[in-house]
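Regression check, zinc ion case 261:
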Amino acid sequence: SSEPDSLHHLPVHPLWQSPLTIPGGTRQSPINIQWRDSVYDPFLKPLKISYDPATCLHIWNNGYSFLVEFDDSTDRSIIDGGPLENQYRLKQFHFHWGAINDWGSEHTVDCKFYPAELHLVHWNAVVYPTFEEAVMEGDGLAVIGVFLKLGARHEGLQTLVDALPAVKHKDTVIEFDVFDPSCLMPSCPDYWTYAGSLTTPPLTESVTWIIKKQPIEVDEDQLEAFRMLLFTSDGEEEKRMVDNFRPLQPLMNRTVRSSFQ
Ligand SMILES: NS(O)(O)c1ccc(OCc2cn(-c3ccccc3)nn2)cc1
Ligand SMILES: [Zn+2]
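Current build output:
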């Protein structure tokens, strides 16, 4: 088969062992982005990001990732432009990662896994009254995906890493009242975009994906800090929070567009 051997030894976490496919799903995520099959779209605009660090609320371990949540009651932290027809409000960001550095991202590029992937989740508050309603609509959400690769220590990420021991167990939360997620963006503006879905339940086909071409660098200690989190609650038998990524889904009748040539 054309897939590297490692793909056949990928762990499939219990979370995904059940055939969690959406019957009749035609735009599921994540997918492999085959660079040479992506189509440059000159009409794609630059992505505009404006986050207010003061909208940061807390970090919580929800039992399959850790989420940094934002006050999305106003338009203080938004993205606009790119493939989007209007602005979308930042609700939360979270990560997916592996037990080892050979895998962990949800999307792949030319079948290459990164050790982790950041998702910044935004919803279309121009059209829908709540996030929960936007989750059910084809143009309801916009998620920015940023790949993490092993390299230099990421100083902006470190403030987040320092807080992780306080949310080691499922359903723990700590206040986190100033953080600017812009510091997690790579310097290069290039991105791919395609129509997809949530990669965890309810798996709804409501996401305009914006995947940054350039990864950000983090060091081994920072990845290890993710891996010391637990899927399990305090008092339960400990299960390390690792390999919390969904298996690749079929591209079906979709084209991945690029903002760059
Ligand atoms: N990994 S990912 O970026 O694709 C991603 C991003 C956001 C997600 O939200 C799930 C969710 C659904 N709801 C919900 C609550 C009440 C009613 C309806 C929906 N709340 N959170 C899941 C995966
Ligand atoms: Zn995600």
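Comparison notes: The chain has a mean pLDDT of 94. The two ends are 30 Å apart (CA to CA). No diff flagged against the previous build.
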